[in-house]
Amino acid sequence: MLDRRRRLARRLRGARRDAAGLWPFAHRRSLGACRRQGERRHRLVHRPHRPRRHRARPPRHAGARAPPARLSDAPRIAFLAAATEVAQTARDRLVAMYGEAQPGEAHFIVALGGDGMMLETQHRFLGRNAQIYGMNRGSVGFLMNEYREEDLPARLAAAQAAQLHPLRMRAHSMDGKTHASLAVNEVSLLRQTRQTAKLRILVDGKERLPELICDGIIVATPAGSTAYNLSAHGPIVPLDANLLPLTPISAFRPRRWRGALLPSTARVVFEVLEAEKRPVSATADYTEVRDVRRVEVREDRSITMTMLFDPDRNLSERIISEQFTV
Description:
alpha+beta; Rossmann fold; Tumour Suppressor Smad4; six-stranded antiparallel sheet; 17 strands; 31% strand; elongated
């Protein structure tokens, strides 16, 4: 009975030592390791309280202000001007006020001149996602904003973007060559001599007009519908209409045909009839091909052009207002 009590007492003492982590061979650890672990547990349990140190902050006065937020760098602007004296003088003044960046490094490109300068700038930067803002230093300036020198960065930041897709022209000439070009405004076919042109018109592979006797014909973009197309009595097309106006120039036969509105996905083909006797040229904006026999025109949606306009006179508003101008 006594031996049984002694064995029970030994087991109790061993359990207490295991709980304290001091038993030398518990979990196959050395005596030193067990003692160090026990000491660490003792320090964690009996750690004295130490008050946290607070860093003293300088008092903020009632009139003191927080440091101003760091402003982003001013926009980098490239200035391009037409060859006229008025446009060149405007460019020099703006460069002196706002500095100048290279076109490839600029956030904005400012074109100074007329609509021709805007077309030239658009062609120069086609496919580069350039932000082009025009200011009128020419004559008509339908695609340009009002010329003002003050607050130009603010005007650029507030400008509204108009995104357009150019027309792609493929002209096949009588000598067997093929000429490709892009048009921001329109593609036009014009007679080259005193004799009228004879054209066959196909849309999406289907013949729509077997013979058109005329001085020429125009396929315009919505932005270009207010230019040559309008002067030929063609319709003005809003930007979001997804339509392309097809307008004849001085149609003789059929006498009452006034043109058509085509979906922007249409592929238009013009075949020149009696091409040797009645030569015809094809022009995409300012690129002209002489003595053509076949011309293909379609909208190229793989290319997007961006023009910036002041909010109070954006391009959509101008196109609508032009329809009520008398």
